[in-house]
């Protein structure tokens, strides 16, 4: 390992440490993440030739074209990152539009419970199943909006929000469309929809039941009247009942349609989310045009989409940008691939150990490059653990998804909840990480039991 490689890793570790101690340094995590991104790639440019030879051996260009090639590599990673960021911004905007128009009130009513423990179980199962239908990122946004209506006390809401992270990641792990990593494995033909749902559903369910069972003992008493009847502060109802129902149908129905749109067009998910946002935006503008006519066109509507766009948490977006681009640099210097090879050798092909470690690592670095590296290192085989729906691929789907819950920055759901609720890294690590780990290991144990005694071969 070269000195330059060690320096890049050191910058990443130092930046990650500052993010982890944000509550002590009082420096916004987005600023640190952006500095990590820039410093890692600046060090990379000190001697890019050695890294290009390692990761892109087919490149035969001259020294003059080396800089241009590196720039194209960075832009390619930025493009991949931007698809996630635009999906995030689109989903946040759609949810905000629906929420501002009372679209999620029915979910709040379903969640209603006088018991704090009873509410905990309802939140967990609603998040778990919504995450499988939509995706863990969008579901987390929706559930946080609902929690703000149900629980104004921030101390309690932080506990419920942490459970949302665990439940969203667990729910996304057993669905072929619930998480980016399962989508990758599904599209590459390494898992099938029927296989991953039938065999990973129970381990995913166990991984959320265990944490809920533990967390419930930290909550006592009942939810007060002020908590159960808190409503979102609207200036006034700008839309009528039929219009609000239409906004809800287009927004939530559109979110459900995004995976179908991807399947039909083979376009990235962010294209579908922008399609839904465009349609919803157009429909609301038509509604507002009608409202203007009724009131003489002098009213300034606060809930128009152009006004709601200002509510997007840009610091979270920039934090996500910095983290993903810094991880991309680690990928380009070969650290992630080398780490995967080392794990495989160290554990002598024990797939439970290898995927288990990958799951733990996915809570530290982004699970997408980890899964992508694993897919490149291990080709599909006709039979055995590496076959379609084999133990390795299904465990990888489970571990990469659920493992991200162990640290709050280990998943997209965690990052967005961290930004929306201002949960610090240290608070989550001290109170929640060990609980998420207990659920994670329980799920792996249940998967071993299922594959050993029930599904001895893939369906």
Automatic annotation (TrEMBL):
The chain crosses the membrane at residues 6-24, 31-52, 119-147, 159-178, 190-215, 246-264, 270-288, 308-328, 395-420, 432-450. GO terms for molecular function: antiporter activity. Keywords: Antiport, Ion transport, Membrane, Sodium, Sodium transport, Transmembrane, Transmembrane helix, Transport. It is found in: Membrane. GO terms for cellular component: membrane. It is a multi-pass membrane protein. One of its GO terms (biological process) is sodium ion transport. Residues 16-381 form the Citrate transporter-like domain. InterPro entries: Cit_transptr-like_dom (IPR004680), NhaD-like (IPR045016). Belongs to the NhaD Na(+)/H(+) (TC 2.A.62) antiporter family. This is Citrate transporter-like domain-containing protein.
């Amino acid at each position: 390992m070269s000195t330059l490689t060690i320096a890049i890793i050191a910058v990443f570790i130092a930046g990650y440490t500052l993010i982890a101690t944000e509550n002590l340094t009082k420096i916004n995590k987005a600023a640190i993440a952006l500095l990590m991104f820039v410093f890692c790639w600046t060090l990379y440019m000190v001697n890019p030739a050695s890294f290009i030879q390692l990761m892109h051996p087919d490149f035969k260009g001259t020294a003059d074209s080396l800089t241009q090639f590196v720039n194209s590599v960075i832009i390619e990673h930025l493009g991949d990152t931007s698809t996630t960021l635009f999906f995030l911004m689109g989903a946040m905007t759609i949810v905000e539009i629906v929420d501002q128009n009372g679209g999620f009130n029915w979910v709040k009513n379903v969640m209603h419970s006088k018991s704090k423990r009873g509410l905990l179980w309802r939140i967990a199962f609603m998040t778990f199943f919504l995450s499988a239908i939509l995706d863990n990122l969008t579901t987390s946004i929706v559930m946080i909006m609902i929690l703000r209506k149900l629980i104004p006390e921030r101390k309690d809401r932080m506990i419920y929000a942490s459970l949302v992270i665990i439940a969203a990641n667990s729910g996304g792990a057993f669905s072929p469309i619930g998480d980016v990593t399962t989508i990758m494995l599904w599209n590459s033909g390494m898992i099938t929809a029927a296989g991953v749902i039938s065999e990973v559903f129970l381990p995913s369910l166990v991984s959320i039941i265990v944490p809920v069972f533990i967390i419930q003992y930290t909550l006592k008493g009942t939810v007060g009247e002020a908590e159960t009847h808190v409503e979102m502060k609207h200036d006034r109802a700008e839309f009528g009942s039929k219009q609000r129902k239409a906004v809800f149908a287009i927004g939530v129905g559109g979110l459900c349609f995004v995976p179908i749109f991807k399947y039909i067009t083979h376009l990235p998910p962010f294209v579908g989310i922008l399609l839904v946002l465009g349609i919803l935006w157009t429909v609301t503008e038509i509604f507002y045009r009608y409202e203007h006519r009724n009131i003489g066109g002098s009213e300034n509507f606060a809930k128009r989409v152009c006004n709601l766009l200002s509510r997007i948490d840009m610091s979270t977006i920039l934090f996500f940008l910095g983290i993903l681009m810094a991880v991309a640099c680690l990928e380009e210097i070969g650290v992630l691939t080398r780490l995967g090879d080392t794990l495989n050798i160290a554990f002598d092909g024990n797939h439970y150990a290898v995927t288990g470690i990958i799951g733990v690592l996915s809570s530290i670095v982004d699970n997408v490059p980890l899964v992508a590296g694993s897919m490149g290192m291990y080709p599909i085989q006709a039979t055995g653990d590496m076959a379609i729906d084999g133990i390795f691929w299904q465990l990888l789907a489970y571990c990469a998804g659920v493992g991200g819950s162990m640290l709050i920055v280990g998943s997209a759901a965690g990052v967005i909840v961290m930004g929306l609720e201002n949960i610090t890294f240290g608070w989550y690590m001290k109170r929640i990480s060990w609980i998420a780990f207990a659920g994670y290991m329980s799920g792996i144990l249940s998967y071993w039991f299922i594959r050993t005694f029930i599904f001895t071969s893939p369906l």
